[in-house]
Write the structure tokens for this entry.
Amino acid sequence: MVKQHTLTLTPIHFPIVRPGEKLSKIVVDSLRDQGLRPLRGDVLCVASKIVSTCENRIVKLTEIHPTKTARRFAKQWRIDPRLATLVTREADEILGGVKGFLLTTKNGILTPNAGIDLKNSPSNTATLWPIDPDRSARRLRRSLERVYETKMGVEIVDSHVTALRLGTVGLAIATSGFAPIRDDRGVHDLFGRSIRVTRSNIADDMAAAAHMIMGESTERIGAVIIRHGPFGIAREGNGELVKLSRRRCLIGNSLTNAMK
């Protein structure tokens, strides 16, 4: 059981990040400029676009030549054919779509347009997810732990949509250094019943809180420090622990059945 304190979320303001800059240096410099220092057990939630930019995951749309398949998707769902081409390259699966977006899976995550975004990407470019988000989170955590000589967690946050709900919410696409799931199975509820299936996705809960503060437009809040959250340090913690197979997922399995 994690000792409970008052949960705090501290925004970290970033400069405009340029492609190829060193992520850990940007984070450390931004923390220093604001007089902040991570403590043991903190989790740093960093925006995926910051990570992608540092890793040069930005593509010039002028260099994309639409494929025949992408043109078909573009016509059906009224999407820029160049963006549709990128989505077909990046997605694990394309399941459907609405005007302007394709429903895809990427790295085992259900997300629009394979996580590709045009917003806050330089003119005539698109920003892709990091190639290996868990590796990126792990590298950043290790760098910060060396600098600050403490144990902490890192997660990479993007936004996504949820079924039949308006608006975007935060999503943890990678974690490192903490247990992302709280398992309540076997615990008794208020009326003495043994809980059979409930596990809480702490990583996505934190991503949603961080996303609320980061915003999606001109805020320039590239990261959020979460302190006193209901999580513990766990070296084995990573983004794979929050993923669920299609067969076991209520939504994913229903999509599969609907397509048969």
Summary: The helical segments are 23-33, 48-54, 68-77, 81-90, 133-148, 202-214, 250-259. The two ends are 44 Å apart (CA to CA). The chain has a mean pLDDT of 91.
